[in-house]
Amino acid sequence: MATKKARQDYICRVRYRNVLPPVPYAPKMITIPSLIERHVPYQSTSLVEQTPYSLTMDQSAAIPFDKALVDYLDAMESNPEEVSRPIEEVAEEDKILLTTPTDGQGNSGMYTRKPNVTWLRRSEYIAQETRGVSNRKEGVESKFAMSGATAKRRSYNTLQEQIAGVENTFKQPDINTLQHPQTKSKAKKITPLLPDMQCWENIYTIGQFSAEPADEARLQKRRLMMEDFDTYKRPRLSELDATDRGILRPMVNPHDPEDTYLVWFLPDGESTKRLVNQKQNPLEGLSEDVLTYNAVCDYEYKNDAGSSSKYMLISIHNDDMGERAVYCPIRSKMVVRKKRAQSAKFKYLDDYEKPNVLTVTYTK
């Protein structure tokens, strides 16, 4: 006789649903400032410095004071010798601490061993009394300066010696004897480097591209030009096709104000020839004819305000004031990469008019 296996199960299944109630309040969107806007250096103005602060005095208000401090100040005015007299009641075991401290550096300039004291002892595992200085590599600039041993032999006790020391700081070096401390290469000329006060207020930014910013036509010409140049004497290809003279223009999506990006423009063929010629012959300058730039692609950008490296923009001028070099600080840096294309679902967000051509005119 076949027996049917009994199936064990619950008679009634109870299922609990974990359905959360709706949010009672609408979410709040908080605008977070960028990294550059978070830290703004404080700059005082003449209006703030000349405005006197109003000091409100209330005669009925009490001013707390320390009576012991007032008594001490009164005693200093009436009998200062009595107040400043040292206390003679010192315990016998503490009199050893009243000895004059000795300096660890002797008359010869060498660091001598410090005497031991009863109330302060060094650890037993410390082998030396002085801390050793590791041999660290210094920059090449420090080798041009005066060494520490030479500075100790100089004396600046009198006013005449101090004036002579300041004047020697600005003394023009001899170009015939000036040479590099490592390569021993001789200097050819000396150019003064001064801050550029005309462009000091301008904001310069270093732009770092994640990929080659040149368009396909320029890249094709570079492949053909690579065969004509030597590997060790190859010039910068961006200077030959005016890629280094491109323009980044900021744009805002009208459908989404939070969508900000940059449009990369490069000069056309005729404008490229003029810009390359102007860079090879800077004294000729550029004419006031219009330069035409065409849009290449869109870039996303990210500000790198926390960069530890500092940069300067140095330019050389040869005008009525002579040949000179001026510098300006570069205060910011940004990293740009190509903007991703929108999917078919969000293609309508890019349905707006964008600039494709820029016209630039250089004026003197």
Task: List key phrases describing it.
about 375 residues, alpha+beta, three-stranded mixed beta sheet, 9 strands, about 20% helix, RNA polymerase II complex binding, RNA_pol_II-assoc_Paf1, RNA polymerase II-associated factor 1 homolog, nucleus
Question: Would you summarize the structure shown here?
Answer:
It is found in: Nucleus. This protein has 364 residues and is α+β, with helices and mostly antiparallel strands.
Describe this structure in words.
This protein is of the alpha+beta class. The termini are far apart. Residues 115-135 have low confidence and may be disordered. It has ten helices and nine strands. A hairpin with a 2-residue loop joins strand 3 and strand 4 (256-267).
